[in-house]
User: What shape does this take?
Amino acid sequence: MYALLLAIIYIAFISLGLPDALVGSGWPVMHDDLGVPLAFAGILTMIIAAGTIASSLASERLTRRFGVGVVTAASVGMTASALLGFAFADSFWMLCLWAIPYGLGAGAVDAALNNYVALHYAARHMNWLHSFWGVGASISPFIMGAAISSGQGWSSAYQTVGLIQVALTVALFASVPLWARVDRARPEAAHRAHEPGPEGRATTGHVRLGVALRIPGVLLILAAFFAYCAIESTAILWASTYLVSERGIDPALAATFGALFLLGITAGRFLSGFIADRIGDRALIRGGFILVGVGIGLMALPLPTDVPALAGLVIAGLGCAPIYPAIVHSTPANFGAGNSQAIIGIQMAAAYTGSTIMPPLFGGLSAWTGMWILPFFLLLLVALGLVMSETLNRRIRHRPAAPLIESRTPAE
Assistant: This one.
């Protein structure tokens, strides 16, 4: 039963990744068919991101009320409906309309599943699950490419992925009783959600946003998470352009190494799973940021050969791999299991905020300064993430007994 639920969670993580690359991979064709400028992709991604941030912040309240199983199934169902809506949309305004459930479906399930895994499973599973997210994100561009090359068009790709999500929704709703059975079979794990935190006590009630943000150290980890996701998304969007414009690398080769950056994240998370329980979340976060810094530093070196720059991009991808899973998995230990759902929801919001605003911010900056600034921009984010996470570690190591922090109870 426990293994079956874990398998369902792995499948759910694949479903999380499936929609994420569809807009980017299909937009070069979509914008022509819809008769809108190429830049309108930013409008879609902003709507999706806004919905994701909103549902991430609401995830703690939803999960407490309905349970992880129901929230997961309903969120995947919402995403499935949005994807099918995209498949039958024939105008840009319709895409904008369907982008709302597209984003809302992603945030709550992301926070709910991450918190459930952080509470119930070892660190290795958190890394492997996020590796499975990468599998889903890697599959969807192939589906889009096959649909376009076969002449069926981009809408066929959305329909295919939407139907896959519908099947997953049915399976997830069927599994809802299993979540309750697992909790009854392992009451010690279920009770973790109400354990007192190191800086206060958790209750069975909703942890308000203001209360969660005042827990010592939360703002530090939010800044670190923001920095990490900004690094990842900015590198994904601009690294290939940097290699072509500043290093004179062939566009095809630059695109290949851009893909290797993503594959490095996916493979790195798989490999990190084998050592995560042994070395711990804090060491993974620290080592990840340092390795990212080394990789980006190699990209910045003004050497006559391009090998260090290309290798540096892959090294940066491997360094990125454990940071996201380790930050999420360490949340119950850092802030208390009873507070973790609320804090992970805020972390997801910080993550999507960094992923949304920093790549276009760099685009505007590079138009003024030149693309050469990319490694230094990324290194600044690496420094921010490393300093914030290490400051949190020092505070936790030297944390004195503190007054209890009250969270809101249903009677309030």
Remarks:
- The chain has 19 helices and no strands.
- The longest helix spans residues 337-369.
- The domain at 213-397 is CATH 1.20.1250.20 (Growth Hormone; Chain: A;).
